[in-house]
Amino acid sequence: SRARKPLVAGNWKMNLNHLEAIALTQKLAFTLTDKDLDRAEVAVLPPFVDLRSVQTLVDGDKLRIEYGAQDLSTHDAGAYTGEVSGVMLAKLGCTFVLAGHSERRQHHAEDDQLVGAKVQAAYRHSLTPILCVGEGLEVRRAEGHVAHAVAQLDAALNGVKTEQAKSIVVAYEPVWAIGTGEVATPDDAQEVCGAIRVRLAELYDEEVAGAVRILYGGSVKGDNIAGIMAQPDVDGALVGGASLDPVEFVKICRFGE
Ligand code: PEP
């Protein structure tokens, strides 16, 4: 048996139209059984504009899948044109919110300090942050990947209290594996996820380190998830491309079995 309940989260990114978002949520809800959802938590992370519809489906049909957002503002309200706050996401019934996805770091110049502020904003509204960390190809080639992930973790957890830290989800996503079809080996995933857990014990204590779920992300598919899930410090997956295909995503939620 596993020490932690695995989590599989589907990051839809900026994909699907409104009807497709509803159809995908319904297909997942029809296909995933109680047994599946006893074994693993499953969450979808739609674009902001589809959160309301997903909420209506989940509430109306008492679905056991969860949902969340791909980003949030560091502020709670005010003159921040185009931003969406944790207050708003909490009102929409979100459980999770991504913080520091590599695409935000790359295309929106999010640095560690900003990502840390987003983690704080999530906690202010009882949202569970899914903190994304991971190195690019150059850092990997220079063997700096463990230090890189640990430094991003340290920065984002600055000011996060022990009680809060217990509930965080960390996703190790090597940038070179995101959307490229190039998946990290199970050993690669374990190396960094294991180092993240060791660091959590140093920053907090063994209880926190033992409670936090650490996901792997990067070209996860139905036929490569089993090896990744077999690693002791990998507690699930953050899935991009394959989360748009209900058959593939359900396979991943079942760990390829
Ligand atoms: C992601 O965006 O978090 C991700 C892991 O994408 P993909 O599965 O497409 O590599």
Strand content: 5-15%
* CATH top level assignment: Alpha Beta
Helix and strand string, N-terminal first? Answer: EHHEHEHEHHEHHHEHHEHEH
Dominant shape: globular
Organism: Sphaerisporangium corydalis
Subunit structure: Homodimer.
Keywords: Cytoplasm, Gluconeogenesis, Glycolysis, Isomerase
GO molecular function: triose-phosphate isomerase activity
Give structural notes:
The radius of gyration is 17 Å and the shape is globular. It has an eight-stranded parallel barrel, surrounded by five helices. It has a single domain, classed as Aldolase class I (TIM Barrel), CATH 3.20.20. 44% of the residues are buried. It has 13 helices and eight strands. With 257 residues, the protein is of the alpha/beta class. Bound molecules: phosphoenolpyruvate. Residues 11, 173, 178-179, 217-220, 238-242 line the site of phosphoenolpyruvate.
Give a quick precis of the structure.
This protein has 257 residues and is of the alpha/beta class.
Keywords, please?
binds phosphoenolpyruvate; TIM Barrel; TrioseP_Isoase_bac/euk; 13 helices; alpha/beta; EC 5.3.1.1; 257 residues; eight-stranded parallel β-barrel; 8 strands
List the helices and strands and how they pair.
Layout: E1 7-11, H1 18-31, H2 34-39, E2 41-45, H3 51-60, E3 66-69, H4 86-91, E4 96-99, H5 102-107, H6 112-124, E5 128-133, H7 137-141, H8 145-157, H9 162-165, E6 169-172, H10 186-203, H11 206-211, E7 213-217, H12 225-229, E8 236-239, H13 246-253
Parallel strand pairs: 1-2, 1-8, 2-3, 3-4, 4-5, 5-6, 6-7, 7-8
Helix pairs in contact: 1-13, 6-8, 8-10
Bound molecules: phosphoenolpyruvate.
Phosphoenolpyruvate binds at residues 11, 173, 178-179, 217-220, 238-242.
Subunit structure: Homodimer.
Subcellular location: Cytoplasm
Catalytic activity: D-glyceraldehyde 3-phosphate = dihydroxyacetone phosphate
